[in-house]
UniProtKB/TrEMBL annotation:
Name the UniProt record assigns to this protein: Transport permease protein
Segments passing through the bilayer: 27-49, 61-82, 103-131, 137-160, 167-189, 227-249
Coiled-coil regions listed: none
Keywords linked to the UniProt accession: Antibiotic resistance, Cell membrane, Membrane, Transmembrane, Transmembrane helix, Transport
Family: Belongs to the ABC-2 integral membrane protein family.
Compartments in which it is found: Cell membrane; Membrane
C-alpha cells in the first residue's frame, strides 16, 4: 500500500458516503429493526425471562441487539456493491489510473461509518429505556473496538455476495442467518436454560463470546477468556472474508 492507494481510497470512500447521506433512510431502517427487537424483549418478554443476574434486562440484552444492528447494516454493503457491479462502475474504474483494491475498501469503510451511526442510535435508545452502566471510558473504548472489528469482519463477508449475487435479493439475503444467530446465543437468555444440542451450539458459535465479553465490559466485571475468544472469532472471520473477497474480486476484474 502507498500514498496512491490511500488517496484513491479516500476519494472513492467520499463517493460512497455521499450515496449514504443521500439515502439516510437506509441507516434509519438499519436501526429500526434492532430497536423494535429491543422494545419487544424489554417491555413484552423481559418480565418473563430470568437472566440469573441483578442487572436490568435492557442492559442484559443490549450486546445482542448491537450485533443484530451490525448484521442488519452490512446487507446494505452487499446491496451497494451489487448495484455498482450491475451499473458497470467497476469496469469504468478499471480504465482509470486508480488502485483497484481501493474500490472495495471504499465500500468497507463506508460500511464502518454507516454502522457506527446505527449503533449510536441504538445505544441512545437503550439509554432512554433505562440503560445504566458503571463502565469507564476504557471499557467503552474496548466495546467500541470489538464492535468495529466485528463490523469489519462481517463487512468483508458481505463483499462476497455483493460480488457474486445474481439478483438484488440474493445480494442481501445472506444477512438473514446472521441476524438470526444472536437468538441462539447468550444474547437474550442464559445458555444454561437451553436444551442440550441447542445449548452446545449456542456456547460454541461466535456470537456468544462476543456478547458475553461486551456484557462484562458494560457491567464492570472481569471478562476472563471471553474477550480473547471473541477477538479470535472476529479476526478469523475477517481473514477468511477478506481472502475470499480479494480472490473473487481479482477474478471479476481480470
Amino acid at each position: 500500500m502507498n500514498k496512491h492507494f490511500f488517496d484513491d481510497t479516500a476519494v472513492l470512500t467520499g463517493r460512497s458516503l455521499k450515496h449514504v447521506t443521500r439515502s439516510v433512510d437506509t441507516i434509519i431502517t438499519t436501526a429500526i429493526t434492532p430497536v423494535a427487537i429491543m422494545l419487544l424483549f424489554v417491555y413484552v418478554l423481559g418480565g418473563a425471562i430470568n437472566t440469573g443476574t441483578t442487572q436490568s434486562y435492557v442492559s442484559y440484552q443490549l450486546p445482542g441487539v448491537l450485533l443484530i444492528t451490525i448484521a442488519s447494516g452490512i446487507s446494505y454493503t452487499a446491496f451497494r456493491l451489487f448495484t455498482d457491479m450491475q451499473a458497470g462502475i467497476f469496469e469504468r474504474f478499471q480504465s482509470m489510473p486508480i488502485a483497484r483494491s481501493g474500490v472495495l475498501w471504499a465500500h468497507v469503510l463506508t460500511s464502518l461509518v454507516a454502522n457506527l451511526i446505527s449503533l449510536v442510535i441504538v445505544v441512545g435508545v437503550a439509554l432512554i429505556m433505562g440503560l445504566r452502566t458503571p463502565a469507564n471510558v476504557g471499557a467503552w473504548l474496548a466495546v467500541a473496538g470489538i464492535l468495529l472489528l466485528f463490523t469489519l469482519a462481517l463487512t468483508w463477508v458481505a463483499v462476497i455476495p455483493g460480488l457474486t449475487a445474481k439478483t438484488v435479493a440474493g445480494a442481501s439475503a445472506f444477512s438473514y442467518p446472521l441476524i438470526f444467530l444472536p437468538f441462539i446465543s447468550s444474547a437474550f437468555v442464559p445458555t444454561a436454560s437451553m436444551p442440550g444440542p441447542v445449548r452446545w451450539f449456542a456456547e460454541n458459535q461466535p456470537v456468544t463470546p462476543i456478547v458475553d465479553a461486551i456484557r462484562h465490559l458494560f457491567t464492570g466485571q472481569p471478562v476472563g477468556t471471553d474477550i480473547w475468544t471473541a477477538l479470535a472469532w472476529c479476526v478469523g472471520i475477517l481473514v477468511v472474508g477478506f481472502a475470499f473477497s480479494m480472490v473473487i474480486y481479482r477474478r471479476k476484474i481480470s
